[in-house]
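User:
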Amino acid sequence: MTTTTKKSLIAILMLVFVFVCCFTAIGASADDLEFAGKAGFEKYVTEQIKDAGITADNIFSAAHPDYAKKVHKAIDLYTALGNDDKAALSADVKATYEAIQKASAEPFAVESYVVSILYDKLNNYDGERFYLSDEATLDTYYAKYEGLTAEAKAWVENLPENAFDNFAKAYARLAELKAKLQAAIDAIDAIVEYNNEIVLASEDSIDAAFDAMYDIYDTDFLADEFAEEWALVTNLDDYHDAVEALANQYAKAAAVEETIANVYASVEEGVVYYTKLADIEDARAD
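Assistant: Predicted structure:
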């Protein structure tokens, strides 16, 4: 096979590849094109919702597992419409859509939370994290679930990939975090003082308090990422005060060491000893 023939063959194969890709893309989007725009949306609601017998009462019926998917599709199509198209929808289509949208809003909100938001947080996906401060949101969505109809509850409980289990996992994670939070608070309370003052010997207990806070999320709890969490450590100010006091003690110790060094230097140089008595007394006082 000559070089020219090889180049021609490669060019033909490339053209075939491009044609196949374009054909596949067109085929995959055919359904979307059919129901795109105002006319497409009205056709979808009429044929796939109303004529198919989907109503606000049976969206989550176990006998019709495809109904919820079709309603999802209708919501996506409606969301893609411009404001003018939405305003121009026929009264019948609009009424049908609004009824199913209202009936599916809470179940779909719970679905979105457990499938996407909660999953990402529990698995640290894309930098997300489940925080202690997520408790209120978790409780809100669990309350939404509790308020669903029996059919909608069953639908949520049977979401693919055991997504509903994320509720139980989140509450278990929350319990772990609360236990670690309490351990951090206790560690701060246990910071050692002598005569109600922080001294150099307090350092180990201060480090232990830092480590206990670190253990909450296995990273530096005092980083800005956790600013909203700081208020949960009710005695965090005590920790900061202890750190500052320890720094002051180290500064005093350094000053004392410098004074004593100067005294010994003077003695070694033959300076009369009593001239340094005041310095020695100051060092003892510190």
